[in-house]
Structure formats: structure tokens, C-alpha cells
Amino acid sequence: MAQKEFRKFSSYKIQLYLGILDVACIFFNSILSGYWSKSGEIFCTHQKSSYIIGCIATALWAGTCATCMILGFNRIIEILFPKLSVKLFRGCRTYFWLAIPTVYMIYFAFFTNPLLFSSTSYAMFFDPYVNIDRFQIPVGTPKHENISHTINNILVIAVILIAYLCLCLIMLLKNHIDHDTNDMSYIQKQTFIQVTIICFFKMSAAAIYVYMQFFYTPDWLVITGQITWQTSHGVVGLIYLFLNTNMRDAVYTKIFKCWKPTTQTKPTFIRATNSKY
């Protein structure tokens, strides 16, 4: 996505930024969390490092959520109002939009309570003493919570669901108006597959993590929430590789010099429109 042929499209610029955040977050919520699960670490054993890592992981999650919402907005504007899209996202203007999730991450990193990993539940909680029966919280102690995180997750569920349902509806309407059944059916097929995968894991992680911060949650659901969080950052790369013809050809061409591109066949959903900005 960092190649010039992709960076001329605003949607790929946003996806590149999102990819950087995804890869960074995977280190904290997958690799490091896996190591701590095996070694049995809790907040009390590594308070400073656990707190700092929690701040970074929480900020990266918030940043990916904000970037996904901007990407959904970008796609809808691109399809419905191409001229307006050029005015909003042309050239370096896309980078100004990316300043929003950057500031959003700074806010979550420095001004909100972080998620803290606990090997007792194999997931991250705002309460550092979750499932530690021997620890008694003194009466009157403020609860460990993050209202901003709760609002963020609820907003993500609503915005992503509405945005991508709108995209699917737009594709259906375009099919009906243009009467281009064969080509549009292919695009629709790719659209629904990619939308379903991306939205399912992102919204599932957001919903489960909000629920388990406030209510009793069985271990299997907690672990499911952690896995969906991990998958929401890792599955997007696989979607690009297997369902995005342009991206797959670019990767294969880099690895196999004799690879013959197939991008001239049919476009996929992730591919940007023909307007070059």
C-alpha cells in the first residue's frame, strides 16, 4: 500500500495508516499478551510496564476504530458524491483527516484509564484486580473504568454497521439503475464477503469488551472477546491478500518476478474508484 500506484488513491492512504496501527496493536494484544498468559503475569507483578503497555494498547484500539469510521465515510462520499470527495480527500488533504485518529489516540493514551492485562482471565480489563479472590478492594475506592472507551465502542458498533450497510445498499441500487448485472454482481459478492468479515470481528470485539467491563462474563466469552480483538487487527491483511486483486498482484509481483497481474479483470470492493487523488 506504500507504493506510489496505491498512494494516489485516498482510500489506500487511509488503509495504509490503519495497517500500521493494526500491526502495532497485534504486538501488544497478541504476542505480549500470549507471553504474559503463559508466564502468569498480573498487574501487581509489573505495575509500571503493564500500565504503559495498557495505555499504548488502548490508544491503538481507539485509533483503529476512528480510522475505520473515517474509511467508511470516505467510501460512501466517494460513491455518492465524487466531486465532494475530491474536495475533501484530494492529495495531502487525506493526511489532515488522519490527524483525527492521531489526536484521538493521544487522548486515550494520556487522559483515560488504560486496559490492563490479567493472566487470570487471559484478557485486558480496566480493573487490575479482576478475578483475584484474595484481594479485597477497600470500601469507597473508586471503580476502575473508562467511560470514553465505552462510548467509543458503542459508537464504533453503530457507525460501522450503518456505514457498511449503506455501502451495500448503494451497490444494490447502482446495480438496479445501471442494469450491469454481471459486473455488479461480482462487486456485490466481494463487498458482502469483505464487509461481513471486517464488521463481524470489529463489532464483536467492541461489544464483548464493553460488556465484560461491567457485568459478570464467563471465561469462554472473555477469551472469545480477546480473540475477536486480535482477529479484528489481523484479518484485514488476509482480506487484502486474498480478496483484493490489485493488492494480491502487487504482493505476488514483488515475490515472484514472473507473475502476470490479473488486475485488469474485475475490480473488488476495497479497490478505490477511478478518480486519482
TrEMBL record:
The chain crosses the membrane at residues 16-36, 51-73, 94-117, 151-172, 192-214, 220-243. InterPro entries: 7TM_GPCR_serpentine_rcpt_Srt (IPR019425). The keyword Membrane applies. Pfam families: 7TM_GPCR_Srt (PF10321). This is 7TM GPCR serpentine receptor class x (Srx) domain-containing protein. Keywords: Membrane, Transmembrane, Transmembrane helix.
